Recover the amino acids of this structure.
């Protein structure tokens, strides 16, 4: 039997994996850190943190989803409230967001190990859910954001589902998970005056925005240092909803993230485990007695 790969086989394997996707599960007990000054609650339904007053964030760390920009009474976490996104398979959770008024804001944010050029972004996707109990503007739901910097300025490009149609729809769907696919032709907007306007765009916050490609062409000095999803900041009226299965493709490599609540053994499982531990203990004691008798 050959224990190694031939040169040709190795080359073929490298080619096949060059554009491979990497999927990661973001779990409540191992992924969510401490949100300073927030009231955090953990239970069978998951973990949430609510922060009144000024916005706070977890300490930044690369390669990890973190609670960020949470304040004004907003809530963020990972829960079973809305189950799993439509592409989640057998999962049981999603990133949860709630806001109470125009001062509320809450995000989940992911930092790259190192910034990449805007041209590296080829697209992404995410699942979002707007609860029917939400009474803020019916156009609003969780957005998909690219975090940008030129070394001195930190800003973002924002994708919102409602701005992808022309004429603009009057409301986004409620009470049902939606899957949004994002390409370099999708519309983005930014209110930051430090970003150069793409040709034909008359203002930074124009509702229809401009394609990602046009923003990238006009701002080649900026790089992507992370991604974000969340709600709030000027949203008048309460909102409840969720995000799941967030993905992005950079330099041909796709990263996808599924937010989940940690699995807790059922009572019957706990009972079997206790019985098993007891049996193991009995066997150990019996062997000790046999050894002494010998």
């Amino acid at each position: 039997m050959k224990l190694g790969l031939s040169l040709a086989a190795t080359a073929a394997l490298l080619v096949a994996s060059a554009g491979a996707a990497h999927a990661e599960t973001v779990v409540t007990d191992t992924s969510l850190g401490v949100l300073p000054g927030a009231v955090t609650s953990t239970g069978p339904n998951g973990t949430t943190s609510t922060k009144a007053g000024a916005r706070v964030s977890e300490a930044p760390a690369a390669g990890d989803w973190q609670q960020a920009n949470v304040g004004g009474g907003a809530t963020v976490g990972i829960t079973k409230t809305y189950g799993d996104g439509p592409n989640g398979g057998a999962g049981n959770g999603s990133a949860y967001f709630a806001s109470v008024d125009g001062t509320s804001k809450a995000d989940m944010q992911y930092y790259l190990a190192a910034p990449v050029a805007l041209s590296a972004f080829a697209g992404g996707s995410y699942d979002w859910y707007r609860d029917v109990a939400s009474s803020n503007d019916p156009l609003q739901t969780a957005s998909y954001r690219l975090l940008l910097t030129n070394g001195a300025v930190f800003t973002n490009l924002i994708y919102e589902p409602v701005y992808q149609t022309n004429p603009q729809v009057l409301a986004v769907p409620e009470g049902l998970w939606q899957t949004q696919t994002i390409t370099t032709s999708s519309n983005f907007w930014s209110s930051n005056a430090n970003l150069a306007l793409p040709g034909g765009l008359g203002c930074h916050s124009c509702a229809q925005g401009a394609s990602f490609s046009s923003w990238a062409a006009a701002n080649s000095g900026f790089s992507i240092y992370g991604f974000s999803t969340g709600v709030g900041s000027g949203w008048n009226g309460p909102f409840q909803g969720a995000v799941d299965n967030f993905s992005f493709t950079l330099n041909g490599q796709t990263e996808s993230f599924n937010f989940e609540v940690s699995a807790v053994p059922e009572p019957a499982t706990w009972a079997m485990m206790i019985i098993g531990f007891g049996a193991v203990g009995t066997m150990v004691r019996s062997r000790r007695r046999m050894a002494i008798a010998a």
Remarks:
- Confidence is low (pLDDT under 50) at residues 1-18, 265-277, 279-285, 287-293.
- The two ends are 47 Å apart (CA to CA).
- The first strand starts at residue 21 and ends at 27.
